[in-house]
Design goal:
Length: 232
C-alpha cells in the first residue's frame, strides 16, 4: 500500500460491482480519484460516489443516462465504439500517464455473475501487456467475497487482510522458476513449473501471520477468497 499518492478507484462495467466495500478501503487513504469506465460510471453514481473521470465508449448506456452522467462527471472522455482497446484498457492507459505511482483498486472487472466472459478474460490478461506491468505492481481487483492481485518475480509478503480468508490460491499464469510458499498451511519448497499451475485452497495459519511468496521468473495471480460474503 502506498498512501502517499491518491488511491485510484476504477469501476468497470461488470454486473453489480461490490461498491459497498469501498468505505473500508477509502479510509486507508487521504486522497481518492474515481474513474467510471463505461457503465461503471452509472454504478458509481447509484452508490453515491463521485465521478472524477468518466471514460469509455458508453455504448452500454441509454442516451439519457449518458447525458446525466456527463453532467455529474468532473471530466469526460468518450471514445468511438470501433476501437482497438477495450474501455478498461483505455482507462489503464490514462492512469499510466497521469497516476503511474498510485495504488489502483478495481471494482466490476470480474463480476460474480459475469455476462461477458470475454471481458472478464481481457481484464485478467491486462498484466501481460508490457505497457501496464508497472501498474500491476500496485493494482488489485475486488469483488464481494474475493480480492486478487498479480505478482512479478521477487520476494513478497501476503497479509491476510481485515479478516481471515477461507482460502488463498496461488496461480501461476506462465511457467515459473523457484516458486516457494512459506508460512502457510501448505508450504511449497522451491519448485519450477513448466506450465501454468493453479495451487488452490491454501490457508493462512492466523490473521497476524503472513505468508511469504517468492519466485524468480514468471507471473503469479493470488486470490484471497471466502465462501461466504465477508471482506477479504
Amino acid at each position: 500500500m502506498n498512501n502517499t499518492y491518491p488511491l485510484i478507484i476504477v469501476c468497470a462495467g461488470a454486473h453489480q460491482p461490490s461498491l459497498y466495500r469501498l468505505p473500508e478501503i477509502l479510509a486507508e487513504y487521504s486522497e481518492h480519484f474515481f474513474i467510471g469506465v463505461d457503465r461503471g460510471a452509472l454504478e458509481l453514481v447509484r452508490a453515491n460516489f463521485p465521478i472524477d473521470l468518466g471514460i469509455g465508449d458508453f455504448d452500454s448506456l441509454a442516451h439519457r443516462e449518458k447525458l446525466e452522467l456527463q453532467e455529474k462527471s468532473k471530466a469526460w472522455l468518450e471514445y468511438p465504439s470501433a476501437k482497438d482497446d477495450t474501455d478498461t484498457e483505455i482507462a489503464f492507459e490514462w492512469i499510466s500517464q497521469h497516476y503511474p505511482q498510485s495504488d489502483i483498486c478495481v471494482f466490476g472487472a470480474i463480476g460474480m455473475e459475469s455476462r461477458r466472459l470475454d471481458h472478464l478474460i481481457a481484464n485478467l490478461y491486462l498484466p501481460y501487456q508490457p505497457r501496464f506491468q508497472d501498474l500491476f505492481d500496485h493494482t488489485y481487483f475486488v469483488e464481494e467475497n474475493l480480492r486478487m492481485a498479480w505478482y512479478f518475480p521477487g520476494d513478497h509478503i501476503l497479509q491476510a487482510g481485515p479478516v481471515l480468508p477461507d482460502y488463498l490460491s496461488v496461480i501461476s499464469l506462465t511457467p515459473v522458476k523457484s516458486l516457494k510458499i512459506e508460512g502457510a498451511k501448505y508450504n511449497l519448497a522451491s519448485q519450477d513449473f513448466d506450465f501454468p499451475r493453479a495451487l488452490v485452497s491454501n490457508e493462512f495459519i492466523a490473521l497476524n501471520q503472513p505468508i511469504h511468496l517468492s519466485f524468480k521468473e514468471g507471473l503469479i495471480l493470488v486470490i484471497w477468497m471466502n465462501e461466504e460474503e465477508r471482506f477479504v
